[in-house]
Every structure is written in structure tokens, then in C-alpha cells.
Design a protein that fits this description.
About 35% of the residues lie in helices and about 35% in strands. It is α+β, with helices and mostly antiparallel strands.
């Protein structure tokens, strides 16, 4: 189930994409690109008029980041979008070695 915060992030990505003249779609199934079982899904994908694709994986909690849900990096440019709490945890983990 999608959180309200995830919905807000997707809306912000859509607004930003329109300003950059990109076309976006939520919850895109991209197929068996990682060789695992089932299909990969990406939270938000954009493309521009030059044929570039941008994929966004959204994580709003540390437990979601550490879950078995895949990070589907399937585009020319791939981004992990996190809130401040997850960012702080990632920063601390990668700088303190914990």
C-alpha cells in the first residue's frame, strides 16, 4: 500500500517533469531485466523528446529500503528518491560504518 508521503513525492516528480518537458508514468512494469523471479516495477518513470528515460525508486522508510522489494534501475538515468529520515540514516550508515 502506498503511503501519503509516496503519493506526494510522485506528484512533485510529475510537476518537476512537466517543467522540464518530460512525460511521466507511475508504477511501471519493466520486465525481467535483473534476471530474478517475477517482474521489476519502478515507482516512477519519465521520458523526454530526445529518447532519454529516467527511473525513480522512492523509499520513505528505512524498513522499505531494506526490504526485499527491488530497486529497479532500468533507465538511462536512475535515481533513488528518499525523505529526510532515510537520507539521514543512509548518511550516518555510510559515514560512520554502522
Amino acid at each position: 500500500m502506498e503511503t501519503e508521503e509516496t503519493k506526494q513525492i510522485k506528484a512533485a516528480l510529475a510537476k518537476r517533469g512537466k517543467a522540464l518537458i518530460r512525460h511521466g508514468v507511475q508504477e511501471v512494469t519493466v520486465g525481467h531485466i535483473t534476471g530474478g523471479k517475477g517482474y521489476d516495477r519502478c515507482d516512477y518513470v519519465e521520458f523526454d523528446n530526445n529518447g532519454n528515460f529516467y527511473a525513480y525508486e522512492i523509499k520513505v522508510s528505512v524498513s522499505d529500503l531494506n526490504s526485499n522489494n527491488k530497486l529497479s534501475y532500468c533507465a538511462n538515468k536512475n535515481y533513488l528518491v528518499v525523505n529526510q529520515t532515510v537520507y539521514d540514516w543512509l548518511f550516518k550508515t555510510n559515514n560512520d560504518g554502522r
